[in-house]
Amino acid sequence: MDMLISGAEMLMRFDVLLALLIGSVGGVIIGAIPGVGPAVAIAILLPATFAMPPLVGLTMLLGIYGSSMFGGSLPAILINTPGTAVNALTTYDGHPMTKKGEALRALGLAYGASFFGGILSIIALILLSPVLAKIAPMFGSREIFLAALLGIVLVIIAHRGQTFAAGMLAAFGIFLHTVGLEPVKYTMRFTFGMDWLNSGFDLIVVVLGLFALSQAFLLLIEPESAPQTQRIEGSMGRAMMGVLRHKRVASVAAGFGVLMGMIPGVGEFTAQFLSYTYAQKTSKDPDLFGKGSPEGLIASEAANNAVPAAAMIPLLALGIPGEALTAMMLSVFYVHNVIPGPQLFQSKLDFVYALYIAMILLNIIVVVFMLISSNWLLKIIRIPTRFLGLMILVLSFVGVYSLRNSIVDCAIAAGFGVLGLILKRQNLPVVPIVLGMVLGGIMETKLRSAMARVKVPIDFFDRPIAAILGLAIICLIIGHFIGLYRERQNREPDSDHDMHDTFQR
Amino acid sequence: MATKRNPEPARALLARAGVRMTRVIHTKNFQELFKRYRRPGDLAFATLFFALSIGLLICLPSQTDWVKRTKTFAQPAFWPMISIALMAVFSMFHLLGSLVSERIEGRWLEVWQWIRSLEYALWFMAYVMLVPVIGYLPATIAFTCVLALRLGYRGWRWMLICTVFSIAVVVLFKSFLQVKIPAGLIYEAAPAPFRAILMTYF
C-alpha cells in the first residue's frame, strides 16, 4: 500500500500530468485519423521524449498507446475504416449499427467497453504486481533468454498463414541487430568496410522508417480520399452506460486482453479473436454477429483496450517487449538508464505503480474527452490522405534527424520506409522485424552469460522456470504443426489474413 | 468382332494410372502445403528476399570473424550465422509458396508502385539536406509548400495551411521541446540581435 501511495505521489507533478494530458488527448486524435496510428506517433515522438525525465516521457508515450484505440473506434464505426489496425474487428458490428441508425449507441458502447476493459486490466495488474515482484527475481539469464526465444516463436506462429514470411522477417530483424561493431570481441560484422555501418542500425531509425516513413510513402502514392461523415446527436454519457448491460462479455473480453497482453508476441488480435468467439458462442443472438451485435462490438473493444496495460508486464518485469510499441518504449527506459527487468519490480515498485495509476488517469481523461469531442474529431479525420502523408513526412524528419543529426540515419530510415511500404502493400507483417531486432539483442547477451554456467546442454533447463519455458517452446512448435495438420484434414479455408494487418500498430 | 480383353495389360494400365494419380495427388498436396494468401508482386518480393538471404550467406565468412579459444555460442559470427540461416530457410519456403500458387495479375504494376515511392524518399532526403543550409523553419515551409504543389494542392489556402503547419511543427519541437536540430548556415548572415533567437528557436 505504501508503494501505491508513493507511486501516486510520483505522478503529482505538473510536468507529468501535462504529459499525460497531451499524450491521452493526442493519442485519441492520432488514433481517430485513419493512416496514422499510435506506432507512427510514438516513433515520431520518441526522440523528443529522451530529453524529458523518464516518468514524463513514458507517461506521454503511454498516453498515446493507451488512448489511440479509443479514437480508432470512431472511424471504424462511422465510416467503416479502422483508425488503428486493432479496431478492424470493431467495423464488423460497429458500422452495421451505424447503418441501422444506431451510431450514437455504437460509439457509446465502444467507448464504454474500452474504458471498462482498460480499468479492469489495470486493477488486475495492480493486484498482480506483488506476485510478479516475487516471481521476477527467479528469472536469470537463461530464463530471460528463453522468454525472448518464446517471444520470437510466438510472433512467428501467431502470424498464421504467413508463418514463413514472419519467420524470415524476424530472422532479418535479428540479423539487423548484429550489424556493426560487436561489443565483446570488438570485431566488425557485415560492415563491408564502410564506416557508416560501424555503429549498426539504430532501432529508432529502423522503427521510424518501417512505421512512419512507410506510412507517409503509402499515403503519398495512393489515390486521394477524404471520408465524409455526419454529426452525432444525443447523450454520449447515457450511451456509454449501455455497456453495463453486457458486463459478462466485457469482463471476459478484458480477461482475454490481460492474458494475451502478458504473453510476448501475441497481443490484441488473439485477444479479440478469443473474446469475439466467446461472445458469439454464449450469445442469445449469435446470428447478429457481424451484422451489428452490441456484444460483438463490446468484445472487440474491451479486449483490445485491456492489452496495453498487460503488455507492460513482460516489459517491466523481464525487459522483454511483447510487440512493437513496447519495444519502442524500451528504448526510452534505456536512454534514461532505467533498466527494466526483475530488479525494477524489486527496487522501484513505486515507479511501476506510478505507470499503472497513470494508465487509470489516462482512461478517465480520454472518456471525459470523448464525451465532449466526438463531433470535433469527425472534422479532423477528414484530412485528405495525401496531405496527411506530407504531414507525416515532416514529422518523421524530427524523429530521425534529432537523434544524432545524421544524414545517414535519414537515408537508412528512408530505405526502411520503402521496405515498410512494400511489406504493407504485400500485407506482410512489420512487427517481426522490430521484435527480432530487440529480442535478438537480448538473446545474444543473455545466452552468452547463461552458457558460462552450463556444462552440458541439459543443464540449461535445470531450473523450474527455464524448464517450463523450454517445454512451452517445444509444445508451441509441436502444437503449431498439429494445428496445421488438422487444418489440412478439415480443409478449413484460410482465415482472414487482413487480421494480420499489424502495420499500423 | 468383339475382341477378348487381355487382363494383364488392363491391370498394368490400371497400375500405371494409379501411379500417375498418386503422383498427381502428391503433387497437389505438396502444392497445397505451400499455397498461401498473396497479393500481386508477391513473387518479386519473395525472390528479392531470397536473393538477399543467399547473398548474405555467401558473405558470411568474409564479413564475420571466428575467434580462437572462444566457445561457439560466444563467437561473433554465431548470431549472424543463425539469423541468416533462418532467413535463407524461411525465405526459401516463402518463395516456394509463391512459385506453386496461381499467378496473380499485376506484378509489374505493383513493382512500379514500389519504385514510385522512391520519388518521395528523394523528396524526404532533399528536405534533410536543406535544413542545415537554410534553417529548420524556412526549409520546412519551403518543403511543405513545394511538395503540396507537387501533390496537387494548389491555391493560397493550401499554401497558408502548409505555412501554419510548418510553423506549428517548428515551434512545438524546436522552440518548445528543444529537440536537437542544427541552426541553418544562412542564420549566420542574420543581424546580431536576431541571430541568437533564430539559432535557438527556429
TrEMBL record, chain A:
The chain crosses the membrane at residues 12-33, 109-133, 139-157, 164-181, 201-221, 315-339, 351-371, 383-400, 428-445, 465-485. Residues 17-435 form the DUF112 domain. This is Membrane protein. Keywords: Membrane, Transmembrane, Transmembrane helix.
UniProtKB/TrEMBL annotation, chain B:
Residues 45-182 form the DUF1468 domain. The keyword Transmembrane helix applies. It comes from the Bacteria. The chain crosses the membrane at residues 43-63, 78-100, 121-149, 155-173. The keyword Cell membrane does not apply. Keywords: Membrane, Transmembrane, Transmembrane helix. InterPro entries: DUF1468. This is DUF1468 domain-containing protein.
